Backbone:
């Protein structure tokens, strides 16, 4: 990847991750990412053709709970850490769906 | 037809569990905002999901009712995207190993029976609700619905018309109701559908570009949206334009759809296996045990009612419309041994009474066996059909047994002829004119005289007996002249 | 009583023989924190009032002869573990004002055992880092040398124990974050088998790697804490249904004659500091003297542990940190006209650089077109490494290795060099990848007087074996053990 291509790609990744970075930060992080991804790329040549992916490290299945409902959590506690609530709801800038 | 439509559906149904899928918050419709939430379903830092066993079992039951195979090994995955109704900014869903796969249902089309394939059914969590009215500058997020367990039923693109789609959704709904896994109340949003539509020129094989309309919450709207979209796409192609692959918003009030092009481009959901939930494994025994919990399904009952019990298709369809009504019919029939009589009585009288009193078939205050006894009384000519209707009404209102109602009201049919004879003679002597008219040949007056006799006997007269005696008396008078 | 040498075991004895009251003991630590922590900066917040309440309650039990091992013992808790009513900041601007509305299971267990919680300790932001320099609020210093880092991400926890500002601490370990700072600060730190301790209430970094682990002055102190906090939790679907038949604290001493110990060749790399290497070999001699048999073996998959770890942990982290959008809690940017603007700005302003790097790497690894080559590839390496360890544990009881390739570096030295920081995790990450238990204990000091750590890694649920081996080594090392002078 050329530098400008990788910058564009990092811009796209930053937008996927919803990080609105300014130009300086974008450039600095893009530089870091080039090095870091370079390190990750050393994995490419390892042969893992017949190896299964480990999707869960503890080798158990079926750890479920019974369908018993409990008491509701205090609404005020749920809302207590939000910077903006209205009518017991979390408020966000108006959305047009 | 110039174009062949192809339709696929993704039907979402909320499961009627007691608690949410990943936490023990109660599941129920409505409620003040954020009163049925906890740190887990509102995505507070440090919280973890724990899977609800019943939600998994309900998914298997739904799959079995829809003729699916159950995957022996199944897991959950994260679907990552940002939206204010999604507190964790990912939805825990299932990507490549859903609980159910490869099922389907047969529907009736004008061209005969058609099997609509179901590609998969997976289990996931529902998102919250956004409220946009009420404030100029703000939208509000209510997380009560976050974490309600949801199954998603994905069909293959086998449907070809809005009628087929309508019938398919109705059948799916009935299957889910019978399985007892969902209350399927579309108007409450517990069941909704995403509709995918494409068209292709007649004579070609390759499917056209499809569009999607999301969250349609009534069967009528599903049908309307399909017809509208087929029309819209046909017009586009007729004008030489291409169909754009997009999500459109269906407005049922206006009867039209609008492009949601302002929405973001195709999401990259970055699916990966959910590390906080260990996989689910089923043995054959587990699946069989769940299969045994299913009641006899509506299509089997329909077969039985029409072929073995000789009911009409229309009547059978009415009776299977709910599992409680169908069970009620079966226990009535078991008691009285006459399915046609049971069916007529239930469809004619019981359903009407339910409608009038606003009750549902789950709330009939007596068992089918009790109704069966009433029907037997009618068949044994102990009660007239007319009075039986009154008895039924009373059974609803008072909760008394039919035998008690009959004796309390003196509905027991009089088979004793002397009382009938006296009444008939009295009627005839009070209705000279009618008697003369009958003798002159007006058969119609027989009916009038019958009515008078019945009325006088307060409906307790056995009509056959009254008829016979009336004819006799009239003939006597005829003979006298 | 020399507070700098006090252990939980000794404090228990003092409390139970009424030589000191629980309140007095707590006040000693609170006093030390107030007078010394401005030099160390181990703590982000102190819970003085509630600590004294807890001490009073503990004293009642002691008076009634009903004390348990942790009753009245003052501990510190890493600030990414939720305690109801306390600020739980994860050392991030994003959660600067976040007050937890519930308490983590592990802390509830400590409460049930009547431990005293002194306060919340500093960390690298969201537990991402190896020096605690990534904290948005302060930089913790290494008690052995205030110009050096304490390690990370549980730097505050390790420093609080090393400087005797707490008798023990709960940290969290995702890629070495309990063991590495324990090594840098000359104390003991361990990471349990994945699933042994509940993660409910631990702010998630990488879900399949995170574990809460104890830090203490001795192996036994760590075992005492582990006895309290371990056990299946219905609120954590990944917690194991396992109860040890013996307590961990009773498994700390014993014979290690005939114990088979393996040393991975791949760990004896060029980057290994010569003094650390020397200390390693001296420790091997000690273990052999004590009867163990040490042998080198090869596990090639270890060469790629760092890359695999960073790919997987960053991928999970990128997803776990998506919930921080300013809507429900946390930092909310001003003057945002749309939801997109609100979340983009809040996250850009609320997160520090290292967090952003991990989120970008993780998003990249999961992105369409990259998933197979990066994330899935790493998952396959995870399988190879787990298999490699399974194999090793058929031959060996314990795997031995240095905890870090170097001793504590200077503050500011590596802050702009993420790659150097990542590669320094070489010895610790494989343990998290395979979900194994591992303990780091001091085994020596370099020519600058900086502590060197030695790690004993066991098979899944092999805590008792590693406690026994580490405890036996520790007993032999006891007269060489140093405490820092501050």
Residues:
């Amino acid at each position: 990847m050329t530098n400008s291509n990788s910058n564009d790609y990092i811009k796209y990744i930053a937008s996927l991750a919803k990080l609105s970075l300014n130009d300086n930060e974008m450039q600095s992080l893009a530089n870091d990412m080039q090095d870091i991804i370079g390190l990750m790329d050393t994995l490419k040549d390892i042969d893992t053709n017949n190896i299964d992916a480990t999707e869960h490290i503890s080798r158990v299945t079926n750890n479920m709970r019974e369908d018993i409902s409990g008491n509701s959590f205090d609404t005020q506690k749920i809302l207590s850490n939000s910077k903006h609530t209205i009518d017991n709801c979390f408020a966000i800038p108006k959305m047009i769906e | 037809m110039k174009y062949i439509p192809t339709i696929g559906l993704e039907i979402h149904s909320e499961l009627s569990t007691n608690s949410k899928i990943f936490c023990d918050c109660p599941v129920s419709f409505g409620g003040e905002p954020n009163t049925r939430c906890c740190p887990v379903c509102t995505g507070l830092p440090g919280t973890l999901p724990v899977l609800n066993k019943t939600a998994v079992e309900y998914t298997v039951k739904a799959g079995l009712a829809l003729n699916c195979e159950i995957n022996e090994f199944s897991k959950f995955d994260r679907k990552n995207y940002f939206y204010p109704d999604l507190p964790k900014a990912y939805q825990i869903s299932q990507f490549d190993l859903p609980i159910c796969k490869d099922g389907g249902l047969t529907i009736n089309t004008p061209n005969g029976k058609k099997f609509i394939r179901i590609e998969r059914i997976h289990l996931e969590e529902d998102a919250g609700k956004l409220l946009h009215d009420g404030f100029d500058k703000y939208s509000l997020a209510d997380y009560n619905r976050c974490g309600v367990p949801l199954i998603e039923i994905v069909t293959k693109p086998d449907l070809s018309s809005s009628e087929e789609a309508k019938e398919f959704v109705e059948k799916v709904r009935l299957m889910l109701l019978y399985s007892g896994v969902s209350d399927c109340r579309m108007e409450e949003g517990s069941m909704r559908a995403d509709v995918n539509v494409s068209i292709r020129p007649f004579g070609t094989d390759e499917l056209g570009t499809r569009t999607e309309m999301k969250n349609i919450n009534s069967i009528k709207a599903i049908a309307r949206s399909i017809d509208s979209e087929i029309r819209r796409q046909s017009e586009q192609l007729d004008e030489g334009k291409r169909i754009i692959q997009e999500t459109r918003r269906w407005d049922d009030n206006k009867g039209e759809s609008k492009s949601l092009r302002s929405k973001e481009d195709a999401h990259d959901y970055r699916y990966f296996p959910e590390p906080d939930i260990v996989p689910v494994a089923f043995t054959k025994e587990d699946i069989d045990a769940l299969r045994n919990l299913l009641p006899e399904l509506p299509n089997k009952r329909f077969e039985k009612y029409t072929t073995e019990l000789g009911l009409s298709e229309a009547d059978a369809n009415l009776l299977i419309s709910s599992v409680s009504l169908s069970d009620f019919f079966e226990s009535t029939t078991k008691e009285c041994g006459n399915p046609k009589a049971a069916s007529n009585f239930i469809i004619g009288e019981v359903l009407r009474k339910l409608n009038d009193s606003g009750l549902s078939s789950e709330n009939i205050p007596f068992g089918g066996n009790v109704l069966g006894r009433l029907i037997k009384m009618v068949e044994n000519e102990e009660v007239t059909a007319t009075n039986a209707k009154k008895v039924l009404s009373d059974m609803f209102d008072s909760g008394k047994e039919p035998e008690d109602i009959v004796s309390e009201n003196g509905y027991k049919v009089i088979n004793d002829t002397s009382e009938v004879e006296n009444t008939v003679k009295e009627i005839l002597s009070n209705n000279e004119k009618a008697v003369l008219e009958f003798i002159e040949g007006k058969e119609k007056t027989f009916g009038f005289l019958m009515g008078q006799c019945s009325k006088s006997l307060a409906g307790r007269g056995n009509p056959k007996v009254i008829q016979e005696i009336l004819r006799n008396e009239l003939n006597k008078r005829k003979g006298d002249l | 009583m020399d507070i700098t040498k006090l252990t939980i075991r000794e404090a228990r004895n003092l409390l139970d023989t009424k030589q000191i009251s629980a309140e007095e003991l707590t006040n000693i630590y609170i006093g030390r924190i107030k007078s010394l922590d401005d030099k160390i900066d181990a703590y982000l917040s102190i819970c003085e009032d509630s600590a004294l309440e807890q001490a009073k309650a503990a004293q009642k039990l002691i008076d009634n002869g009903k004390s348990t091992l942790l009753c009245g013992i003052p501990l510190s808790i890493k600030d990414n573990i939720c305690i109801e009513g306390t600020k739980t900041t994860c050392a991030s601007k994003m959660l600067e004002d976040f007050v937890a509305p519930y308490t983590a299971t592990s802390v509830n267990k400590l409460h049930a055992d009547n431990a005293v919680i002194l306060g919340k300790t500093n960390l690298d932001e969201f537990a991402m880092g190896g020096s605690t320099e990534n904290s948005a609020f302060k930089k913790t210093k290494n008690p052995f040398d205030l110009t050096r880092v304490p390690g990370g991400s549980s730097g505050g926890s390790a420093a609080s124990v090393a400087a005797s500002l707490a008798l023990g601490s709960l940290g969290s370990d995702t890629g070495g974050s309990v063991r590495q700072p324990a090594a840098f600060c000359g104390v003991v730190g361990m990471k349990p088998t994945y699933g042994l301790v509940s993660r409910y209430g631990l702010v998630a970094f990488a879900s399949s790697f995170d574990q809460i682990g104890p830090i203490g002055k001795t192996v036994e102190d760590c075992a005492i804490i582990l006895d309290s906090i371990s056990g299946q939790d219905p609120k954590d679907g990944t917690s194991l249904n396992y109860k040890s038949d013996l307590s961990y604290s009773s498994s700390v001493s014993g014979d290690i004659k005939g114990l088979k110990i393996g040393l991975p060749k791949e760990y004896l790399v060029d980057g290994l500091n010569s003094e650390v290497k020397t200390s390693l070999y001296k420790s091997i001699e000690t273990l052999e003297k004590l009867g163990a048999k040490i042998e080198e073996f090869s596990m090639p998959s270890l060469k790629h542990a760092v890359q695999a770890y960073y790919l997987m942990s960053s991928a999970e982290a990128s997803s776990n940190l998506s919930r921080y959008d300013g809507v429900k809690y946390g930092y909310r940017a001003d003057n945002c006209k749309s939801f997109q603007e609100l979340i983009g700005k809040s996250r850009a302003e609320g997160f520090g650089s290292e967090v952003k790097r991990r989120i970008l790497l993780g998003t990249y690894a999961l992105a369409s077109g990259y998933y197979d080559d990066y994330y899935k590839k790493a998952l396959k390496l995870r399988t190879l490494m787990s298999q490699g360890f399974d194999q090793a544990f058929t031959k060996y009881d314990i795997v031995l290795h240095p905890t870090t390739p170097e001793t504590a570096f200077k503050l500011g030295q590596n802050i702009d060099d993420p790659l150097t920081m990542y590669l320094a995790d070489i010895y610790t990450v494989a343990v998290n990848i395979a979900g194994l238990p591992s303990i780091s204990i001091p085994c020596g000091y370099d020519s600058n007087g900086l502590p060197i750590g030695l790690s004993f890694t066991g098979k899944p649920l092999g805590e008792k074996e590693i406690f026994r081996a580490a405890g036996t080594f520790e007993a032999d090392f006891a007269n060489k053990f140093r405490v820092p002078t501050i």
Summary: The domain at 417-480 of chain B is CATH 1.10.10.410 (Arc Repressor Mutant, subunit A). The longest strand of chain B covers residues 112-125.
